[in-house]
Amino acid sequence: MPFKVAIVGRPNVGKSTLFNRLVGKKLALVDDTPGVTRDRREGEAHLGDLTFTVVDTAGLEEASTESLEGRMRRQTDAAIAEADVCLLLMDARAGVTPLDKRFAQILRKSPTPVVLVANKCEGGAGESGRMEAFELGLGAPIPLSAEHGEGLSALYQSLQPYA
Ligand code: GDP
Ligand code: MG
């Protein structure tokens, strides 16, 4: 049984970009397609010699009658329940936002292990955001660039224990 990794975090931090990189193909259907609502996508991920199931979460972007807090809570609870490990992505260029803090707060209380990932760090960018990320109380963030494929060996090392 491959282990399961859920990618969580606020909109626009790069969750789907990381999902596509780990699954290794550009999926024809992207989350931003107008009118297409996709709350979650699952795929087979490869990272070094690791194979695992990866889950991309979405759906906080769309207008809804349910509150943002309610949707975030539901999505995060589902990720916690099904995953062996959660990747909490934040945008190192944007720094820590209130919504990042809310995700961290929920994940810190969960029994599911969490790996904090600071995305958009290509070429050493996002230094101050990476420092801010320590405020989330989830340890040192893994610097990554999902778009440029940088930091994948550190991500490998953080996931390897769950294989
Ligand atoms: P999601 O809403 O969390 O799924 O985020 P997306 O994967 O849709 O990415 C949101 C935006 O951030 C897009 O414009 C991406 O091209 C951009 N992005 C994602 N990863 C990176 C990265 O590593 N570096 C930079 N500079 N931009 C990124
Ligand atoms: Mg997305």
TrEMBL record:
Portion of the full-length sequence here: 1 to 163 of 470
Residues bound to GTP 1: 9-16, 56-60, 119-122
Protein name from the UniProt record: GTPase Der
Complex formation: Associates with the 50S ribosomal subunit.
Task of the protein: GTPase that plays an essential role in the late steps of ribosome biogenesis.
EngA-type G domain mapped to chain residues: 3-163
Superkingdom as given in the UniProt entry: Bacteria
Family: Belongs to the TRAFAC class TrmE-Era-EngA-EngB-Septin-like GTPase superfamily. EngA (Der) GTPase family.
